[in-house]
Design brief:
heterodimer; A: 475 residues; 21 helices; 68% helix; B: 124 residues; Methane Monooxygenase Hydroxylase, Chain G, domain 1
């Protein structure tokens, strides 16, 4: 107990909080032997880092199987070893495909376990609450408890539902959430499917989600579900076009649709594309929040309007899968955003020292934090505003931007000036064009801003507050 | 190496189908072992619409305004897909192709302006 008197009556919980040792006290109370061992471990860690730095600078690590900066090296040497042993090429191919697939699967699986906890804790910080803290250390086991509970829940299938189609969507909605990870490069040789049409693949896969959503709404035979599904389909379909247009300008600037080449372009010129194409990055970010049904654009599952939207009739684990896939999609969009606009696995030369996949993971979590921030800050948009925003604002400005980038890309291919000057000039030109167009468009289309809050009409009509008092007690 | 790439897509697709099937399978096992309850009941199985009796089936006609947006999506998406090959190659092409692409995008922009003028983009 501290000597400070408690302001509130000392409940057992408040006493516990007051009696909790501080971080400093805990550190000072550690016995000497532990401190010595800790110091030795610290020194050993520093020595290990120095050794790694020596090996990296010496270039002895490049391309060896134990070069953990790029797990593609390990897979490549495994392939070479199996070839030397004389395995069938199909077996070798199958092993490498299974390894990569398991990697992606475990990434998404681990995220689906810790993701809900992260989201709820961060949202709780925004709303000055504590968040889940009961199950396990810091409440970390909350989502495992949720999953166990959901699996034991009774499954209620509505009488009018289409029995077969009702079971398809919870499984089908996971297809875009996992397949989208395929072409993303995690390091120089570490893309699962290094497709030469990576952007087209991404767009095509992301529109599969619409199908599952509509099936869910249709099969439930519920008016709310169908309404939610129709809203979601209309919205997702509209926001697909700004995504394609913004990725079109990225493909034009880098002259490639291969995702690893887009990242390599950004690494080569030491620039993030968000600096050159700010409007495309904004359009991609906003449109992808609509695409994955997150607040502020979660109009399809607006709780206050249409129960739970397209998955109203799904109970137990099926409903849980719909909620889980939203989180999986959120980090997938974070990965796409960081690959296209935030430099991917490169970080201005840092990727020589830190593994590229750790850099990409950090960027993904940063974008995810932005999503949670948006969710905590913004209210839900109205459906007509959302559709208007896509068709009257994002699409026209994106088309203008595409044309400007087309001119810039042909200039970039023909001018021999240093890339720093040309790209810097493009960044300035694009930023000013963006600001100008957004200002013009907003002035033309936007609602008039009300500068001062209006006074209550009734009081004014009677002649102000004093008049109202006079009326209330006549002299 | 296109077939190799898409073989990997197939492996990932199999994983993507197996991943959600796992918790559903565990849930079904719990149902077989009678841990998960299953007490069917006509009121429980009714369509959930906030306690109000559901009026008829929802598999009927629905509003045409969704249809207009879907049409717009098809037109735009197909045209944007046509723009991609040009976008990748155009830095090496002669400058004349820029004008042709401008004409193509101008037609698109005209279509958008027409739809806007005809109030097809209003959500009514």
């Amino acid at each position: 107990m501290s000597d400070q008197p408690l302001r509130r009556p000392a409940t057992p919980m408040l006493q516990q909080i007051a009696a909790r040792p501080t971080m400093r006290g805990t550190l000072l109370g550690v016995p000497l032997g532990v401190k010595v061992i800790g110091a030795l471990f610290g020194l050993a860690f520093l020595a290990l880092n120095a050794a790694i730095a020596y090996v990296v600078i010496d270039g002895r690590l490049d391309g060896k199987w134990y070069d953990f900066r790029d797990l593609g090296n390990a897979v490549e040497s495994l392939r070479g070893w199996t070839e030397d042993e004389g395995f069938h090429p199909g077996v070798i191919y199958g092993i490498s495909a299974l390894l990569g697939g398991l990697g992606i699967l475990s990434l998404v699986g681990v995220w689906l376990i810790i993701g809900p906890w992260v989201e709820r804790r961060v949202i709780a910080k925004f709303q000055i609450r504590v968040g889940p803290n009961r199950n396990g250390p810091f409440g970390l086991f909350q989502s495992i408890a949720d999953a166990l509970k959901l699996m034991q829940k009774e499954v209620i299938i509505p009488r009018g539902a289409d029995r077969f189609l009702y079971f398809v969507p919870p499984v089908m909605i996971f297809v875009p959430a996992l397949l989208g990870w395929g072409p993303i490069p995690w390091a120089e040789k570490m893309a699962y499917i290094d497709l030469d049409v990576g952007i087209l693949f991404t767009i095509a896969i992301s529109s599969l989600g619409v199908l599952a959503v509509f099936l869910a709404g249709w099969a439930s035979n519920n008016h709310y579900s169908l309404l939610g599904a129709m809203r979601t389909v209309a919205m997702m379909v509209s926001y697909e076009i700004p995504i394609s247009l913004s990725l079109l300008s990225v493909a034009m600037l880098t002259s490639s649709m291969r995702l690893s080449q887009i990242v390599a372009w950004q690494g080569h010129y030491h620039v993030w594309i968000i600096a050159i194409l700010p409007f495309a990055a904004f359009a991609f970010l906003f449109a992808s929040t609509a695409e994955i049904n997150r607040t502020p654009n979660d109009i399809g599952e607006a709780e206050s309007e249409i129960v739970a939207g397209f998955y109203t009739e799904y109970s137990g684990m099926k409903g849980g899968l719909f909620m889980a896939v939203e989180l999986g999609n959120a980090i997938l969009v974070g990965a796409l955003m960081s690959t296209f606009f935030l430099g991917g696995y490169t970080m201005f030369g840092l990727e020589e020292w830190i593994p590229g996949y750790i850099i990409l993971l950090t960027k993904i979590l940063a974008v995810y934090f932005l999503f949670v921030w948006l969710r905590a800050t913004l209210p839900r948009f109205r459906l007509d505003q959302l559709m208007g925003f896509a068709w009257k604002f994002l699409i026209p400005i994106s088309m203008v931007q595409v044309f400007v980038v087309a001119i810039e890309a042909s200039v970039f291919a023909r001018v021999t000036a240093p890339a720093l000057f040309t790209l810097g000039a493009f960044a300035i030109v694009n930023l000013s064009i963006t600001i100008l167009l957004v200002k013009l468009w907003a002035d033309r289309l936007g609602y008039a801003v009300i500068q001062h809050p209006t006074k209550p009409v009734l009081t004014q009509a009677v002649g102000g507050l004093r008049a109202a008092e006079r009326i209330r007690k006549p002299a | 190496m296109i077939p190799e790439d898409f073989g990997r897509v197939g492996v990932l697709l199999a994983f993507a189908l197996a991943f959600p099937a796992l918790p559903l399978g565990v849930s079904y096992l719990l149902y077989i072992t009678k841990i998960r309850p299953s007490n069917a009941d006509p009121i429980k199985q009714a369509t959930y619409e906030c306690g109000v009796e559901s009026e008829g089936s929802s598999w009927g006609q629905f509003n045409a305004r969704y249809y207009v947006f879907a049409l717009g999506f098809v037109i735009f998406d197909v045209d944007v897909i046509f723009l991609y090959p040009w976008a990748v190659q155009h830095a090496d092409l002669p400058l004349g192709t820029l004008v042709k692409a401008a004409v193509f995008m101008g037609i698109l922009a005209f279509g958008l302006a027409y739809a806007w003028r005809k109030r097809a983009l209003e959500w009514r």
